[in-house]
Amino acid sequence: MMGRHHARVLGSLEGVDLVAVADPSGDKHGVAGGREVLSSVEELIEKGVDYCMVAVPTAFHEEVGTALADAGVHAIIEKPLAENLETAERLVKAFKDKGLIGGVGHIERYNPALQQARSRIESGDLGEVFQVVTRRQGPFPGRIADVGVVMDLGTHDIDLTAWVTQQEYTSVSAHTAHRSGRDHEDLVAVVGRLDKGTVTNHLVNWLSPLKERTTVITGERGTFIADTLSADLTFYANGEIATTWDEISRFRGVSEGDVIRYAIAKPEPLRVEHEQFRNAVLGLEGADIVTLEQGLATVKVARACIESAASGTSVTL
């Protein structure tokens, strides 16, 4: 399902030749464009590829990733890096031992709204970041069968929060629910703390007819709201002009200031992700990828959320 989108981008990416695709079930979505359709990663390796995009069910990440590492092939692996901590650690080691470039497909980092928010936070536009709140909800995706909502969707919010604030998680407390009759959780609410004191809150589910992808970042100078569906970023500034009209002040915040929706370029996040990985493989300075080590850190936090929900306690990282 994701592989077809990766193939579309790679097939038209400057500086990259899409040599072949491999899928044991064939090219059901017709993305090969006349290129060879192979049945295994081993056949793909035999083509002498420089790097490979791994878009397979999470349970097969280690098998495919290790085969590529053993063959000396750079790889970008769809998120999450692995279904558990041990597997993620082995993948990190496999690529590190071979001196290979490995990346994780946390695509939200490349969303224009979050890229802009990260840049403005680095420039001090918000001052100290107090809180990051994310809401990610929508209907159940039939393609997901091997992990729950924490590993599939929650890892997006864990990664983007750590990245946009440039902080690491120090603790999480989570509650989950099973409402759709599946083995894995389909709803989670997480409260976390980052290493510079920022408090986080993530609400994620597969149960809503409303599709929402919202990140709210509050700091000492105002609030950013990033809508990653529309790639819009809006800034609500703290005001410096007191509201002296009592009737109005009852309805409006006493520190309400300017509201700005930024006009920003909106390239496709998936294309930017692949451009950056291509640049990393080419050794170009400034290539911005999600490293395997960063992917491992996200898996650690996600597994801590699942542990917290199971034990009913807060988990320290």
From TrEMBL:
Does Acetylation count among this protein's keywords?
Answer: no
Q: Where is the Gfo/Idh/MocA-like oxidoreductase N-terminal domain?
A: 2-106
* GO function term, MF aspect, one: nucleotide binding
Sorted UniProt keywords: NAD
UniProt keyword Nucleotide-binding, yes or no: no
Indicate the segments forming the GFO/IDH/MocA-like oxidoreductase domain, all copies. 115-224
Record-given protein name: Dehydrogenase
Species in which this protein is naturally found: Luteipulveratus mongoliensis
